[in-house]
Amino acid sequence: MSTKKEFNLLNNRFRNFYPVVIDIETAGFNPKTDAILEIALITLKMDKLGWLHKANTLHFHIKPFKGSIINPNAIAFNKIDPFNPLRGAISEKLAIESILETVRNGIKQECCSKGIVVAHNANFDHNFLMSAIKRVQIKKNPFHEFVTFDTASLSALVVGETVLSKACKAIGLTFDNNQAHSALYDTLQTANLFCELVNRWKYLGGWPVNIKNKSILIQ
């Protein structure tokens, strides 16, 4: 039987998964053909009392991969100039390798089995990440290949909002729309939102699960 102390370990909270908050800014919607322009991630940790917090942050500006498509509408939306030399952009391969090394180290340190993407509308970011990992020919992918934690869905359940800015404000977090659509800022806000959602569930008594609780069926 798990003790209360064991419930306060990260590897017992999410079915042995290691949650990694990610946001990716792109030059379009097709993960196989459109360039990744910016990517940020934040790892998470639990304190001794079982409260979830942000841990480490990585942020990269990415050079479009050879042959990738740059959609003008996407550039107009996120206001990223892919060819601005002041971006300090690095290759997609170098960025992905650095990210996966960080995730592997976190998995090992927290005694987890796999990383899992946490993102707002997570399917989008997950698809781009998986395509990039295949493109740079990484053989051992530490992330789960199809399971994600979507803060848009979780926010709809908890506060009735699906837009990141509205969900943050509804749960009591600040959100600066002028900084939105920056991978670093959106990752920070998504991490804050996810931690708040998880910690609020714990505060309300939803974790650890009380197996004596009975389901409530609305007739």
Automatic annotation (TrEMBL):
Listed InterPro entries? Ribonucl_H, RNase_T, RNaseH-like_sf, RNaseH_sf
User: Which residues does UniProt mark as catalytic?
Assistant: H181
For this protein, the record's SMART domains field holds: EXOIII (SM00479)
**Keyword Hydrolase on entry:** yes
Q: Which GO terms describe its molecular function?
A: 3'-5' exonuclease activity; magnesium ion binding; nucleic acid binding; RNA exonuclease activity, producing 5'-phosphomonoesters
Co-factor(s): Mg(2+)
Q: Provide the top EC class.
A: hydrolase
Q: Which positions are annotated as binding Mg(2+) 2?
A: D23, E25, H181, D186
Enzyme Commission number(s) from the entry: 3.1.13.-
Gene Ontology biological process terms in this record: DNA replication proofreading; tRNA processing
Residues the record lists as binding Mg(2+) 1: D23
Q: Where is the Exonuclease domain?
A: 18-203
Q: Which UniProt keywords apply?
A: Exonuclease, Hydrolase, Magnesium, Metal-binding, Nuclease, tRNA processing
UniProt site positions, description: Important for substrate binding and specificity? F29, F77, F124, F146
**What remark does the entry make about the cofactor?**
Binds two Mg(2+) per subunit. The active form of the enzyme binds two Mg(2+) ions in its active site. The first Mg(2+) forms only one salt bridge with the protein.
| GO CC terms, sorted | cytosol
Similarity comment: family membership = Belongs to the RNase T family.
- What HAMAP family does the database record attribute to this sequence? RNase_T
How does it associate, per the subunit comment?
Homodimer.
Q: What does this protein do?
A: Trims short 3' overhangs of a variety of RNA species, leaving a one or two nucleotide 3' overhang. Responsible for the end-turnover of tRNA: specifically removes the terminal AMP residue from uncharged tRNA (tRNA-C-C-A). Also appears to be involved in tRNA biosynthesis.
Protein's recorded name: Ribonuclease T
